[in-house]
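Lab meeting, item 3. Inverse folding demo.
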């Protein structure tokens, strides 16, 4: 899929406590496919990723969600991590940012605890999706049809359960983002 995303700008929304592998692997897959991922976060500076409960690497923030323009991005990735998911869903600007991607019909990929943000944004009603198993009640209560599968694609939404699902998640993410890019290119002609 090298070059499949042709310079597509992709927002990767994450905060302190993001699961490092769920940030790094999708980021790498996006770059390998020719996309330009940008880290959007709650505050300027750096965020600290985690490997489960242990601190991991830091990553420089490219844009602050309160002032980031969702129209400047073609797609959105929401990596997981318990702390990250909870911080992001509690931030009104982050929730509004996520909602804008759904309102515009842009593709979104979320893994592990990130679907908490989708429930908070009220964009899961009627959707078939998956997540870390402990979120299934939250997602069902928000109107989703939760399933236990490694990756689920429902329209423009890609979801996965955990780090073990990253191969399937990143492949489906790139495929859906490329399909959206093809539609955008056709609309522009």
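The presenter then showed the designed sequence:
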């Amino acid at each position: 899929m090298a070059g499949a995303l042709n310079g597509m700008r992709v927002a990767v929304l994450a905060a302190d406590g993001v699961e490092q592998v769920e940030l790094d692997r999708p980021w790498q897959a996006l770059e390998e496919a020719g996309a330009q991922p940008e880290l959007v976060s709650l505050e300027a500076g750096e965020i600290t990723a985690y490997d489960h409960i242990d601190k991991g690497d830091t990553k420089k923030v490219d844009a602050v969600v309160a002032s980031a323009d969702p129209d400047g991005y073609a797609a959105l990735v929401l990596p997981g991590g318990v702390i990250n998911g909870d911080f992001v869903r509690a931030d009104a600007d982050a929730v509004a940012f996520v909602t804008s991607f759904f309102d515009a019909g842009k593709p979104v990929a979320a893994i592990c605890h990130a679907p908490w943000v989708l429930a908070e944004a009220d964009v899961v009603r009627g959707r078939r999706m998956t997540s870390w198993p402990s979120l299934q009640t939250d997602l069902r209560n928000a109107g989703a049809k939760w399933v236990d599968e490694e990756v689920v694609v429902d329209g423009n939404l890609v979801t996965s359960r955990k780090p073990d699902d990253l191969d399937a998640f990143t492949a489906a993410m790139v495929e859906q983002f490329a399909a959206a890019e093809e539609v955008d290119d056709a609309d522009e002609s």
